[in-house]
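Check my protein:
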Amino acid sequence: MAEYQQVTVADMIQETADAVSVVLDTSFDYRPGQFLTLRCGPVARCYSLSSSPDVDSRPQVTVKRIPDGYGSAWICDNVRPGTVLDVLPPAGIFTPRSLDDNLLLFAGGSGITPVISIIKSALARGSGRIVLVYANRDESSVIFASALRQLADEYPDRLLVIHWLESLQGLPTARHFTTLKPFTGFQAFLCGPAPFMEVASQALKSLGVPRDRIHVERFISLSGNPFEETVEELPSDGDEVTVEVDLDGEQHTFEWPRHKKLLDLLLEKGLAAPYSCREGACSACACRIEQGEVKMLQNEILDQEDLDDGIVLACQSLPVTDTVKITYT
C-alpha cells in the first residue's frame, strides 16, 4: 500500500458550471504540471495541480465533472471545506526542465489544469515566451478564463493566449494550427481529450517539431486502488540481473531478481522512486533505459514514440538482459 497523507480541504472554488478547484490546507514540494492521486470513496483518481509552487500559497487540484465519471462526481457532490482527503505525494513528468524555455502549450477543456500551473511558474520565475492554444466547447466552459486574461494583461510581451471555441469555429484540425509555425522552436506541451491531442500532435509533426520537444500528458482511470493494494509478487525463477540506477543525481547498483518489478525493487531498497498508480495507467514512474532491455507487463499510457525513446514504466518493468542501466533524469 502506498504511503499517503490526510489533508483537509481549505476551500472549494466553482470555476465553471461543471468544474471546481479543491484548495488543500497543506504544503508540499511539487513541480508545475504534476498531479495528485486522491482517494474518492472506494476508488482512486489522478487530478492535476492547477496551483503553482512559485505563486500560490496552497496547492489545489481542479476537477471537471465527467458524465458517468465516478471520481469527479464524488468530489463535486461530497467534498466541502473541512473534508479530509487521503492524498498520495505529487507525481508526474509533465513539467518543463527549465522555466526559461519558450513554451508552446496546447490545452483542451480540463487539460488546462496542469498547463496553467506551468504558465504561472514560467511567468513568475522564467524568462521565455509562452503561447497557449486553449480549446473549449463554448465560452462558458473556459476554465480559468479570468486568470488567463489577467496574466495576458500583466505579461503582454511574454504570454499569448489563443482561444478555440467549437461553438464558433467548429472542431480544430491539424491544418488550423499551421499558423503556429513561428513557434515550432518552442518546447511543446499537450494536455486534453485524446482527439484534441492527436490533432495537436499531427500539427506539430507536420511543422517539423522534433519528437523530443513534444510532451504529452495522458490520464486513464485507475482500475485498482493504490491506497489499499499490496505489492504483487510474480513467480520467481531464482535468477538475478544487475541494474544501475541514476536517481536524483545519485548512482545505485543492485541485484535485480527477474521476477520483481523495477519499482518494487527500488522501493524495497529505500530509494524515493516516483510513482502513483502502480498499474501502468499514469506516467509518474516513467524512466529511461540507457542500456539493456526490459519488458513491461502492462502499458496504457506510453505511445510507440515514447518506447522508441527508451521510456518505460518502472511499476510494470521486468528485466530481460543481464545488465540494465536506467535514469530518472
The chain has seven helices and 18 strands. The chain has three domains: 5-87, 103-217, 240-327. The first strand starts at residue 5 and ends at 16. The mean pLDDT is 92.
